[in-house]
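Hello again, I could really use a second opinion on something today. I've been puzzling over a protein and I'd love to understand its fold better. I'm sending you its amino acid sequence along with the backbone structure tokens. It would help a lot if you went through both lines with me. I've dropped the whole record in just underneath, so have a look.
***
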Amino acid sequence: MPNVIVIAAISEPHPLIILPFVIMLLAIALMPFVNRHWWERHYPKAAVGLGLITTLYYFLVLKHPERMIRVAHEYVSFIALIGSLFVISGGIHTRVKGKATPFVNCVFLFIGAILANVIGTTGASMLLIRPWIRMNKYRITAFHVVFFIFIVSNIGGCLTPIGDPPLFLGYLKGLPFWWVARNCWPAWIIGVGGLITVFFVLDRRNFLRAPQAVRLEETAHETWAFEGLRNLAFLALVVMAVFLRHPPGLSEAIMIAAAVGSYFATPKPVHDANEFNFRPIREVSWLFLGIFSTMVPALDYLEIHSKELGLTSDAAYFWLTGGLSATLDNAPTYVTFLAASMGRHDLSLSDPVQVRHLLGINDHEVIAISLGAVFFGAMTYIGNGPNFMVKTVAEYAKVKTPGFFAYLLCYAAPVLLPLFVLISILFFSRWRVF
């Protein structure tokens, strides 16, 4: 096969146009502390305003409107997927049997990690976060929400392209469907197993601090029961629609239709039991509108200068992909570094045959990019779409959740970074065993 690069030309943005993206991230991180009430009222205006700056720059200055049009389609696809999964999962009500002991909680998280690969991290998160809150209602703390995000909303979904958006983009670019499971299962076991172990230690301490009478009483009256199971048919429709890429717009139309059908087919008592409302998806939609539009210059600048980054090792791909996935959306970050890897080997990302050829040259680079994008998506609330949604649902249920920096500094950094160092050593160093 000829080693030819066939990559669409990218207009280089001025570095200053990255500033709206920086402001957007800082606003998400700081405004809830600086002026929460103002932010809750005006964050849609901030997202649209900052996004317009970038959009007008690409339309009027760079004369490259097709770039923003392509991003707009990606945004619509993103919102159609997570929005439909949000609505449909909100129509399924689960009542959990027995006490939320540390062991039961760990089993629940493990099931969530498996389910994330079948209905996606968004679907699993929205389906399970409410029963997770209910089964721990008498002693739920911030770390319960955080570890749910770590496991169910992110790391658990690294086994299939359906599991997390970056992996699905890789599948669309030409990676075989089962390649992810064949190559990432050891990291999945280490990641999920390590986090569940840490959670068990923390949760057992939390459980033993509760009064014995409360421990015995907790949720003992509940039974395993599921309501709204008709929504499983709508869920299956969304999963099937993910694979329909032609004609353009059909996949998104089916997802939206499934969501509308699910909403009107779900009895009101089921929605009431779930305390269902559109606030979480509305917040995510506005914030990610700002993120998707303002991050374009940052991604373009990175792609243009990717060869200057010194990406010569698998570990470098893992850490740099991960670091940017934690602050950018992990799906476009994944594509950017996959393109950088292809370019390093004089291959084209636009050719599925050459993408599969990269696996024969250095599949560990692709593993590093895949794990970096999925795993580091758990580092911040903006690393992956479901993170914000889980936070919003928890807050609506009156559960205290950590702020942006508290999440990063008090939970993600001390828990996840040592795990990522271990994975880097085992998979991407001279001492690697996988």
Remarks:
- The chain has one domain: 15-428.
- Residues 1-8 have pLDDT under 50 and may be disordered.
- Strands lie at 93-95, 225-227.
